[in-house]
Amino acid sequence: MTTPAQQARSRGPVGLHILPSSMTVLAICAGLTSIKYALDGQPHLAMALIAAAAILDGLDGRVARILDAESRMGAEIDSLADAVDFGVAPAVVIYVTLLSTQPAGWIVVLLYAVCVVLRLARFNTLLDDATLPAYTREFFVGMPAPAGAITLMGLLAAKLEFGDGWWTSQWFTCIWVVGTSMLLVSRIPMRKMHAVSVPPHLAAVLLAVLALVAAAAFLFPYVLVLVLIGAYLCTIPFSVRSQRWVAAHPEAWEDAPKERRAARRAIRRAQPGRRPGVRRGIRRPSGQSMARLRLRKPGR
Q1: Which CATH number belongs to the domain containing residue 130 in this structure?
Q2: What is the pTM of this model?
Q3: Is residue 258 pLDDT above 60, yes or no?
């Protein structure tokens, strides 16, 4: 039987053990500092710090799992950090830079911040629900808080890239903030990034795309943010379709994503009335077309 001291030694050095929590604290500092730069009239730095907080939020949990440093305290700190970094900070930054002169500005940013907190509370509740099927772990319920913050920052990115226009008007800004808030508290399934599998033959293409994204982050950062927001919103219908298919096929709940794709292809091929030649828009040439091409029909 191992003693507590032996268990502590087996978990690794203390310095590495607190690394995930240190990253979470740095994320909190980045989120709060973004408010300071927004108040100082430097929205580009505020936006960069919120993006840095999102990156740190995506890394701290993975680092904790790699180092076997997961703890209840770390989970609570992470949840509070998300409320600050992706709820309070983006709301204040958007209010200061775009909505401070609008009567309804404070109301919509309050709505956004409250929706982030509600979304985080629901996420924590679902984590403790052991009755949910295994496939539900592959989907978020509603837009995740970091994605909501980046989506909200799209308003600021559009202003910094293109200047003032209809995208900075009061009506569009309020609609965008309210729409993002509704996505946060909605029950729309959105696939988690770690649940997305890339086929081996597309690995080289993915690496090339990542290289282009890295280059665009330095050359066209605001355009890149807008493109990423648009691409993420376009994935929502596919996530809904995938979640509904899995929910309707309990036999595939424990299967890996690759096995599910194979099962879906098999089911589509087995559908009655589906002709192989019709797939992908391929049409069999008619007799007149074969005569025009001087082709002989089989058996002649």
Answers
A1: 1.20.120.1760
A2: 0.79
A3: yes
What's the number of CA atoms in the CB half-sphere (13 Å) around residue 122? 16
Q: Which residues contact 187 (CB under 8 A, 6 or more apart)?
A: 141, 142
Instruction: Please state, in angstroms and rounded to a whole number, the distance separating the CA atoms of residues 185 and 112.
Output: 10
In a domain, 186, yes or no: yes
In a domain, 279, yes or no: no
Looking up tokens 């903030």 gives 177
- Rounded Cα distance, 121 and 124, in Å: 5
The C-alpha atoms of residue 95 and residue 83 are separated, in whole angstroms, by 17
**139 belongs to a structural domain:** yes
Average pLDDT over all residues of the chain: 82
* DSSP designation for 255: S
Give the residue numbers spanning the domain of 141.
12-196
pLDDT digits (tens, 9 = 90+) for 63-100: 888 888 778 888 888 889 999 999 999 999 999 999 98
Assigned domain for 52 exists: yes
Please tell me the predicted confidence (pLDDT) of residue 72: 81
Pseudo-torsion of CA 129, 130, 133, 135, nearest 10°? 80
Number of domains in the chain: 1
Q: What is the 3-state secondary structure (H, E, C) of 100-163?
A: CCCCCHHHHHHHHHHHHHHHHHHHHHHHCCCCCCHHHHHEEECCCHHHHHHHHHHHHHHHHHHC
CA 220, CA 222: separation in Å to the nearest integer? Answer: 6
**Quick check: 21 pLDDT over 60?**
yes
In single-letter form, the type of residue at position 66 comes to: I
Which pair of structure tokens corresponds to residue 236? 């929502």
Mean pLDDT value of segment 180-184? 95
